[in-house]
Amino acid sequence: MSTTMQPRRPHRIVVIAPSPVSMFNLAIPEMLFEKVEIDGAPGYEVVVCTPEPGPIVTSGGLTLEVPLGLEALEGADTVLIAGTGHRYLPDPRTVDAVREAAIQGLRIASICSGAFVLAEAGLLDGRSATTYWQLTQELRLRYPALDVQGDVLYVQDGQVMTSSGYAAGIDLCLHMIRTDYGAAAANTVARLALVAPVRPGGQTQFTQTPLPPERGIACADTRGWAMRHLDEPLTLSDLARHAGVSVRTLTRRFHAESGMSPLQWLLHQRIERAKELLETTTLPMDQVARACGLGTADSLRQHVVRRTGLTPSAYRSQFSRLAPA
Predict the structure, then answer these.
(1) DSSP label at 154?
(2) Is 144 exposed, middle or buried (0-12, 13-18, 19+ CB in 10 A)?
(3) pLDDT tens for each residue of 212-249
(4) Which domain holds residue 79?
């Protein structure tokens, strides 16, 4: 008696497109997942839907025909919410559908501002998440129960995944392929798509990492003074002495104006200065460390790796602005 092996069913990914939708966000899943083949068969089936089937507007002003509504989520294995590239209020129908998909145990992911849908559905409460760096502050303010990681490419917290904007969606999709089918499959797709291999989610978005907006000027002179003396071993007492106040008063005022403690702000500025020196000079690592006040090359390495996911040498190699000799 012979038995016939049933063909493996492709992993079904349903992409929900908001209106307006970022065409780039929408193209990423189609481009990457459809390149996956496992034993000669497709690894994924990608379906696009929207709350109101028919023509939807793209962020560039074009019109895109999406014939499927949210009923397309039936039979999904993963639900992926594309972003708009800017601020928007999530459609309640999408929020309800995503919440129900999570209850059913499906994997839920978002690219860029799609994280706002997940947050509105309550799926990010108590979880780590990210979004496009220009929107992280709004995500924090609107949904305070989230642990927003503002300077990473993507975050996986259980069955929920979020990515930053634009090309970080590529990193998230490659991470999903690696999770489903292994590193070899993910790297094969990366080669076919002519993009970088899978990068760690903790790697920075490589932007000028934004600080919370300043809300006062009482400590402005001290912040400026500190920026001019980053190469010195500044302490809380040094900052308070310059400001002419007690350490306790300085800390209170500093937090009220900048959204962080004086030492958190100082470390942020030191790392940003280190990144600038790595990009614009050929200084040895110990000199970079001293120039930004991080002390030693080992300390520089520790902080740069934590912030960017790269060693200082790798960061310089990838982002140097100097013309090749």
Answers:
(1) E
(2) exposed
(3) 444 446 678 888 899 899 999 999 999 999 999 999 99
(4) 11-192
